[in-house]
Amino acid sequence: MAGIQRPYVIDEMISAKAIAARIEVLAREIDRTFAGTEKLVVVGLLRGSFIFIADLVRELSLPVEVDFLEASSYGDQMHSTREVKILKDLRGEIAGRDVLVVEDIVDTGFTLSHVIRLLKSREPRRMEVCALLDKPARREVEVRATWTGFEIPDEFVVGYGIDYAQRNRNLPFIGKVRFPDETP
Ligand code: IMP
Ligand code: MG
Predict the structure, then answer these.
(1) Residue-wise pLDDT tens digits, 20-66
(2) Which domain does 31 fall in, by range?
(3) Rounded CA gap, 70 and 66, in Å?
(4) Overall pTM > 0.90
(5) Would the CB of 168 count as within 6 Å of ligand 1?
(6) Which of 53, 73, 105 to mutate to test the pocket of ligand 1 (most atoms within 8 A of CB)?
(7) Ligand 1 atom nearest to 111, measured from its CA
(8) Quick check: is 30 in a domain?
(9) CATH number of the domain that 101 lies in?
(10) Which residues surround ligand 2, an ion (CB under 5 A)?
């Protein structure tokens, strides 16, 4: 049903306040892990991580460089296509550098495992991953973020950078999408 949007409602799942509190804790752990690095390369995976990376880097005390990578596996639907394409590559070099990959959600794991493989082949000195959300119940590929903001159940979520068909990225909280015409 491409192009046809069924009516849906958004129920708040994680408040803006809870996200901010969790980011403070994550930032302190990241600061500690990369202490002494000359300049950490923080790589945001577009587009879903743009708000998370903005808040996260402002909590870090480390010197950082910010770069972006766009990988696509979703299209505008609610299910992964399992095929990961690099739509926009990094601008900078990461060989020999300390890298933090910032992702919005780890779902089936296809996107993150593909990105990790690609970036590792460029031989960074150290690479860790910070994901805001993790849906472990949906995992098909064995992959784990070093840090996870919140583990969530198998629900389709939006807000705080995350979209449903390119909408709702600007919600300040994370909410779950519910279709009222569907029995739970
Ligand atoms: P994976 O390759 O299946 O792990 O998918 C990861 C990507 O799918 C994430 O970076 C998101 O962009 C997208 N995604 C996964 N779950 C959701 C969701 O609940 N809402 C919106 N996008 C999602
Ligand atoms: Mg994404």
Answers:
(1) 999 999 999 999 999 999 999 999 999 999 999 999 999 999 999 99
(2) 16-152
(3) 14
(4) yes
(5) no
(6) 105
(7) 2
(8) yes
(9) 3.40.50.2020
(10) 48
